[in-house]
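note to self — DONT lose this again. spent like an hour looking for the file last time. sequence + predicted structure for the chain T wanted, 261 res
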Amino acid sequence: MIRALSTAATGMEAQQTKIDVVANNLANVSTAGFKKSRADFADLLYETIRQPGTSAAQGREVPVGIQIGHGVELAATQTVFSTGQMRQTQNPLDLAIEGKGFFRVTTPDGQAAYTRAGTFKIDSQGQVTTSDGNLLDPPITVPADASKLTIARDGTVSVVVGNQTTPTQLGQIQIASFANEAGLEKLGRNLYRETAASGSPRQGNPGSNELGTVAQGFLEMSNVKMVEEMIELITGQRAYEASSRVIKAADDMLQATARLR
């Protein structure tokens, strides 16, 4: 069997995966806080027919060897945490992180999760939650008769309660950072979870210890750039077509060999 058949097949599988990643990026071009992914590839093992540097006749050294590769494999799908464009919404519960960090929330099963999407809401009990009902951690509860909700750049939450004229502080929003953000596990619904690869979270007040600050009335949009993704889509499609042509050429060679008499 011609080795090119299986080698080209790995190339087609790799480019199909790349296009799958690009498709997910484009699908989330309008998702607040979304971070695009990138497919990384690595070449497979090589069959060594002659080792470089081996001795040839009369004690001479072979300067180069003979190694034949077996194709490509998917090495990783890396999340790119570059900052997305900030969009002003004038909604007091829309928050964006300017710089490094994540909002920490608590899922219904009590687990900690992290997000860059600051589309917060207030539930029937006055608790600040995500759109899916995940509670902000540390929790913030807004009184029913509160007005003029203000969130400072350092995360301090203040409101005017009832007929009072002096703002009352309800608490302070904290954000967390990780040594290796790319090691976070994606949970969907704009959420991430810490892993052994990401390291433990370092939580603190916004603006401290190199953490980003909070911008009220803004949302960080997706960091997907459509032009870049369309270029990746075209190159992936052309590479897929090239690998399919290799399979066609290898098939023609096998067909020619089978016709020999």
